[in-house]
Write a structure and sequence with these properties.
Blueprint: E1 5-11, E2 14-19, H1 24-44, H2 51-64, E3 67-77, H3 87-95, H4 101-115, H5 121-131, E4 132-137, E5 150-162, E6 167-177, E7 195-208, H6 210-213, H7 217-227, E8 232-234
Parallel strand pairs: 2-5
Antiparallel strand pairs: 1-2, 1-8, 3-7, 4-5, 5-6, 6-7
Helix pairs in contact: 1-2, 1-7
């Protein structure tokens, strides 16, 4: 039977989708663990400027604290011109082998609708604050013409899908662009001509092992209690907007 993803949670710089069949305790284990791993990696490495080191520590911590790696893939390449790409589509491409296309399509539809709803804006802004860094600066400090600022947007975004058996399929997307992007970055079309360097997409399939994770459960729970709701927010189910 095809898995239906119902719960959607912003967990710092990650967006996680949970199946309707997953018990609350198991969902909390994953939320606690994923938040702790991000905090641990960020304590040692800057998420945006040193993403490779951040990602390596994030993965090492995951394997240390209960996650078993089943498969992984990494792609680093220029963004192809011609085809429309968004942050969501890049993450979805990284997950296309492990997550059914129907799930990727339905969750994209959900997020597009949610992004337009006032009730979801706090969670969307939280995700942007953790997954997107925008730096701007004047092209020429002596230029008094009032031209628009030049800048750089850096993404370090995670998209994850959790199965009922606590298997996690997650894509990490990292790139820099001179394009000015906003809190709605998930679905803004990316201009290939503005990309600085390559697009980096890493995909992981991991399972949470109860025997290894159990000794850390209370520690992770306490860490989340200190941060939640600051870094963890649910995006509630949204209704389809009626067409005129």
């Amino acid at each position: 039977m095809e898995q239906v993803f119902k719960g959607c949670v912003v967990n710092a710089g990650s967006l996680l989708f949970f199946p309707e069949a997953l018990e609350a305790d198991r969902q909390n284990d994953i939320l606690n663990s994923m938040l702790y791993l991000q905090l641990a990696a960020s304590k040692k490495h800057e998420r945006f400027s040193d993403f490779e080191s951040w990602k390596d520590l994030w993965l090492a911590a995951a394997l240390r604290f209960g996650w078993a790696l089943k498969a992984s893939e990494h792609v680093s390449e220029p963004l192809a011109a011609g085809a429309p790409n968004t942050v969501w589509s890049l993450a979805a491409q990284g997950l296309s082998v492990s997550v059914p296309g129907s799930a990727l399509t339905s969750t994209e539809t959900f997020m597009r609708l949610a992004s337009a709803q006032p009730a979801a804006q706090a969670a969307i802004k939280l995700l942007a604050s953790q997954a997107l860094r925008v730096e701007d600066f004047l092209a020429d400090s002596n230029d008094q013409s009032g031209k628009a600022r030049e800048g750089k947007s850096t993404f370090a975004f995670q998209l994850g899908f959790i199965a009922a058996d606590r298997t996690l399929d997650m894509a990490l997307v990292h790139f820099q662009t001179r394009q000015a992007l906003t809190d709605g970055f998930l679905f803004e079309q990316i201009d290939p001509g503005q990309i600085v360097g390559n697009i980096e997409v890493s995909a992981y399939s991991m399972s949470l092992m109860e025997q290894v994770y159990a000794p850390f459960r209370d520690v992770f729970h306490s860490a989340r209690q200190k941060q939640d709701p600051v870094l963890v927010m649910s995006i509630e189910e949204v209704s389809h907007v009626a067409q005129p």
